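Entry 12.
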Amino acid sequence: IAEYYRTYADLCVKLQKYKRAEDAYKKALCWNPVDLDSYLGLAECYKYLNMMSRYLDVTKQAYRFCCTRATMARYYRNMGFYYLSSYNTDMAKACYTYSNIYYHTDSELNYIENALKEAKDKGVTKDDKEYDIRTMQAMFDKENVEPGPDSKTIGIVYRVGELMLQDKEYALAKDCFSIVYDITNEQQL
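Predicted 3D structure (tokens):
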């Protein structure tokens, strides 16, 4: 049932019926409260509806379920969009740069760099900073942005893998361990 509501919501987004999509994503989450795709879809609705505080809240809720490099990158791109829309270009650039550590994409970072170059040319900003990982993590600490995946989530996925291994469900165990390896690069896995 949750998948039905999420699919309906996705279609509503494509048709730019964002209020209907919002309702459908919320119903999907009632049926499956750990569905990352529904959280991310709901955040997109709030983005299109220009409800940025709700966008931020839902993005932070989605964080708990991010357990792959791609979903962590998405979390940081969402955070980057929030900070960009709040005119905090330093944090936005840090978030977009950090997202590339998890899954490389140039589109958002190119957008922000072009916007910063335009602003610099107009004399609005002097930003041309490059950030190292420690600097970005210090910025995240100051703004309460998580500096990596939720260790509880990764621990749960790992534990489920162990249980599947004990039950001789090797394909499922491999899936779980692959997820944990993807995000941690732990060679033992």
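Annotation: The mean pLDDT is 90. The radius of gyration is 18 Å.
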